[in-house]
Amino acid sequence: MAEWTRAQRYQRYEDVDNETLENLQQQVNLSKYRQLFHIQPKTGLLNDPNGLIYYNGLYYISHQWFPLGPVHGLKYWYTYTSKDLVHFSPQGISLRPDTVSDSHGVYSGSAFVYKGELYYMYTANHRDEEWNRVSTQHIAKVHDDGSVEKFPEAVISHPPTGYTQHFRDPKVFIKDDTYYAIIGAQNELGQGRALQYRSQDIKHWEFLGEINTNLDAFGYMWECPDYFNIDGYDILLFCPQGVESDGEHFRNIYQSGYIMGQLDINHLKMNHGDFHELDYGFDFYAPQTFVDEFGRRILIGWMGLPDTTYPSDQDGWAHCLTLPRVLSVEGGNLKQRPIKDLEKLRTNKETALGYANKFTTKLHPYEGKQFELIIDVLENEATEIYFEVRTSKSQSTLIGYNTKSRKLTLDRTDSGYLPENVEGTTRTTTLDTDLSKLQLFVDTSSIEIFCNDGERVLTSRLFTDEDAVGIKTSTESGQAFLKFTKYDLKGEEDEKTISNRGSSN
Ligand code: FRU
Question: Based on C-alpha coordinates, what's the Rg of the chain?
């Protein structure tokens, strides 16, 4: 694909003629990789989820968006609302780069309620004439009709002394009636940090300091920090860039994970355990959390990574969001489960029960391109169990489980086209307990694998041929007694128009 020039990347959506947009839309609509039940960009590139919140009976879900192609360029916020986090109504652009401060992108941020009204706090990205980055933090009010009004001035106009312009992604949280914002940063030594601000009136923000952790030298930048408490456990989530891979850990270009413990907010001291990755697949980054209507903590991530080219790029679009996951802490461990409302997508239930061994391939009559598959491991005397999805004569996506080592491997060597600039074609995680259950969500071009009821998740894009629809099971040696429950999943009609271009602002 031809290189995108800087001028092309920073072209405004509003300045592009309709014919060009319609051609792009048509190209995207023809893509064989379009997803059925995931949020994806109608054209161009989607990245971080932004402004997630449940407010006045509706969920608001926005994402970073460069509309004009599958590259990181001039970023907008594109917004959906939802009643159930499963069906989404596109609302169009909510924040667009139309001021000097955000001339080079409205970057990531979060949503919060102040005096009963909805607001966004976000980073405005500006480049000066020498292309130096200038990052400021802003607030915008979301009106009842969905239009968004930016405050005239930045609420935080520069990074604190000792930090660089890598200063972005404010996540607002409220504790004891006080508003706090946690912001991703880099100090002048080139180390990633999370900075804490406080406000009583959301206009004036006082810098409190950086959150002290024992991860002083852990990457050169921390993007998209998030903080919350579940059942007395404080969790600090962030995306460190520049952490070296270490065995089965930190294999992606950038990492996304959390530390858990106790945060003393007055002294900004976090006592915590190890940094854990949130996801062990190939494509997961920049997640954000929020509280749903039932008080549960929900996480949505970006199913993609920066600095990587994807096979759908040639069709004029890239990436999608992950399915929403419910977070909980059980036995001191963070669990992630798919939200229950996803059951609404189920149709055509099929079940099967049987022994998998060295010779079995098809324990069950299933095929599928977009489905949920639950595998209960009822007995396991196999050395290694193999589950394959999206198989054809030449393609297969393999999940292997080694009984002795408890290592679970996702192998996409034969999955089809692969993204570029990705280390290796396998991802492995060692489970805490014996494999008892896998729950797979397979969409047209992705897989989300939940292991042992929330113990581990592996999320990946798959660029497999349309005719690769087989599902297979076997073992290396020995047998395993398995129960399969499979559902086809139904999606909504893809949005095929460019009608929301003019809305808001
Ligand atoms: C993370 C990120 C954020 C930034 C946004 C820009 O993927 O780099 O730090 O706000 O994307 O699109």
Answer: 22
Q: Is 102 in the pocket of ligand 1 (CB under 6 A)?
A: no
E strands of 19-103, at which residues?
Answer: 44-55, 58-66, 76-82, 88-95
Residue 223 near ligand 1, beta carbon < 6 Å? yes
For residue 498, pLDDT beyond 60: no
Cβ 107 under 6 angstroms from ligand 1 = yes
Is the model's pLDDT at 494 over the cut of 60? no
In the three-class reduction of DSSP (H, G, I as helix; E, B as strand; rest coil), residue 35 is classed as coil
Q: Does domain 341-493 have CATH number 3.40.50.720?
A: no
Give the Å distance between the CA of 224 and the centre of ligand 1.
7
- CA distance to 309, 366, 399, 471, per residue, from 318 (Å): 9, 29, 25, 26
Compute the distance from residue 105 Cα to the ligand 1 centre, in Å.
10
pLDDT tier at 130, thresholds 50, 70, 90: very high
Residues 6+ apart with CB under 8 A from 126: 100, 101, 102, 103, 104, 133, 134, 135, 136
146 lines ligand 1 (CB under 6 A): no
Candidate from 50, 224, 319 with most ligand 1 atoms within 8 A of CB, to mutate: 224
Q: H/E element holding 6? A: helix 6-9
Which of 48, 226, 234, 279 is the catalytic position?
48
Distance CA 46, CA 314 (A): 15
Of the candidate ranges 203-207, 352-356, 425-429, the one whose mean pLDDT is the lowest: 352-356
Q: How confident is the model at residue 505 (pLDDT cuts 50, 70, 90)?
A: very low
- Do residues 170 and 106 lie in contact, with contact meaning Cβ atoms separated by under 8 Å? no
**pTM of the prediction?**
0.96
| Bridge-based pairing state of the strands 407-411 and 76-82 | unpaired
Question: Which CATH number does 6-31+44-338 carry?
Answer: 2.115.10.20
48 is a catalytic site residue? yes
Domain boundaries defined on the chain: 6-31+44-338, 341-493
Q: Which of 107, 135, 164, 308 to mutate to test the pocket of ligand 1 (most atoms within 8 A of CB)?
A: 107
Whose alpha carbon is nearest atom 12 of ligand 1? 107
- Burial string for 443-464 (b: 16+ CB within 10 Å, else e) reads bbbbbbbbbbebbbbbbbbbbb
Residue nearest to atom 6 of ligand 1 (CA): 107
DSSP code, position 445: T
Please give the average per-residue pLDDT across 237-250, as a whole number. 97
Is 26 a residue whose pLDDT tops 50?
Answer: yes
Give the ligand 1 atom nearest the CA of 109: 10
